[in-house]
Amino acid sequence: MSAVLPTGGARAARRLSGARGAAGASQVCSTAGTPRRSRRRKSIAIAYEARQGNGAEQGMSEPQKPHWEPKHWRQQLEHIREMRRKRDAPVDEMGVEKCYDSSAPPQVMRYQVLLSLMLSSQTKDQVTSAAMQRLRQHGLTVDRILQMDDATLGQIIYPVGFWRNKVKYIKQTTAILKQKYGGDIPQTVEELVQLPGVGPKMAHLAMTIAWDSVSGIAVDTHVHRITNRLKWVKKETRYPEETRVALEEWLPRDLWREINWLLVGFGQQTCLPVNPRCSECLNQDICPAAKRC
Length: 293
Hints:
It is a single chain. This protein is 45% helix and 0% strand. By secondary structure, the chain is mainly alpha-helical. α8 (150-157) crosses α9 (163-181). The model is unreliable at 7-44 and 47-58 (pLDDT under 50). The two termini are 31 Å apart. It contains 14 helices and no strands.
């Protein structure tokens, strides 16, 4: 699992290309009256992009919907901050921000951030950290990985989860970075999720850590589980991407960077997947899912 340590003053989020053409939104009829279907390219839904309807463009005011927010969420957040004050969870000591070489050239650093995120999927922080240390000992750069055979790469990253698939994804993604991006990583979520083995959570974390640009909330299994337990979503969500969209609808943007780091560590230490330690939690009296004896 991975998270982002909170830092002061995130720069403005970079512009993302979400393909919304006017041609894809309307159909043009021929003189014979037969409509032509327009093909729409699938794009990543970015919840934080500005939405402008026809009414807004024509100067018509749209009615404001009542703002929804969870009950007690600010108090719950402050309690979680207090419980995370020591910063001694596995994510604090071995998370993605501890895996890359901060003294490496920026382009190399960004590549190492992306690889550590790819390795972290379905893998404990301790295992990811150890695999990254071994990779760095062999020289963790785009060119070195391209020169490395699959068997050697597999031996180095084992036993990360799904290591055989990750060998394939790492080699494919690294080749794309070399050919298309000059050895660097993409600067948008839309481009990042097109890379083999890179999902939305990894893309948002890569934007924050590698590019210092908060593009969205990174939702992993801990964030997904805890926000559903706290009822920070209007209705229960089944998948992390649903949770991300639901959170971004109400959570203030200045908390987006911090929330992943807070909840990942909280989920590792207190709000466990099985047998959560509710008796030790400061939110036990205001958590809808708390086990009360």
